[in-house]
Prior knowledge:
The chain is of the alpha+beta class. It is 20% helix and 34% strand. It is built from 2 helices and 16 strands. It has helices at residues 2-55, 63-66; strands at residues 70-74, 95-100, 108-114, 118-124, 131-135, 144-149, 154-159, 162-170, 182-184, 191-195, 201-207, 218-227, 230-234, 242-248, 251-256, 271-275. It has a 16-stranded mixed β-sheet that branches. A hairpin with a 2-residue loop joins strand 14 and strand 15 (251-256). The radius of gyration is 30 Å and the shape is globular.
Amino acid sequence: MYKLRFLSLILLFLMLLFSCNKNEKSKREQIIEDQMIDQYFNNKNEIIKNSINESFLINENHDLLIDYYWSISDGRNLENSSIEPIDWVGPMTPRVIFNKFEISPENTFYQVRLRKEMFYFLYQTEMEKEKLYPIGNSFGTDSFNFVFNENYSSVDRYRNDVFWGRSKRIGKQIDINFPLIGIWGELPSQNEYRLIDPIGCLYYMEIDKEIPYWAVREGTYLLKQIDDKTFITVSSFDDGLLKLEFISDKEMLLTPIFSLPDDEEGLVAQLIMHRSSVKMEEDDNESYY
């Protein structure tokens, strides 16, 4: 009987020892497995990071931006998967083009907001102060001639020697050295002119149409690069502040970095920009993907 007890105790001890070794092994295996998973994702993220850094050094690889059309889509579901995205189809899809900004910063630059719907830029040279040249295509490519009247309280605009109409100043004159600064005209053709400093801007982008439901305006934006894959817009208006960030060589996030007053409607939310599969020069039909 004593021997039987003794054997039983030995057997129980061996079983416990085996169980402990097994648990210890299992823990070690789990730790190793977790480390391998972490290493995998770290390596993957590092590869992606290096790929981004190499691919998106825009000074050396600006073709990635300016040789392609970019379409815009709803990006809210990236942050909240429960949101059903809004789809724009065919010609309804807002589209973006990029260009290099190569105008001397020695000129005088104006950012103009048409109503609260569109941005465009004009610049004035020291030699031709009565003439304003557009940047990009958002508001046409022909220059304007401005003639002030009534002690700078009204202005006549001409384009290609064609009279575009007279606008009255709204409010007081802000700067006698730059009499165009301020709000001109009545709705629906009201324009506000502000000075803008383009120093450091490498590119500009143009959104070709209204983005339905969004507070991001159509029109032209000057871009300043802040790191290898990120741009911000330069704007004299709060609702012109945007951030663009590459997430792959075919996609960018477009994020508004402003807020709207309570009495103004529009989504201040993330959008995604998708690069077309062919270059502009090959896209004879200018397809909308």
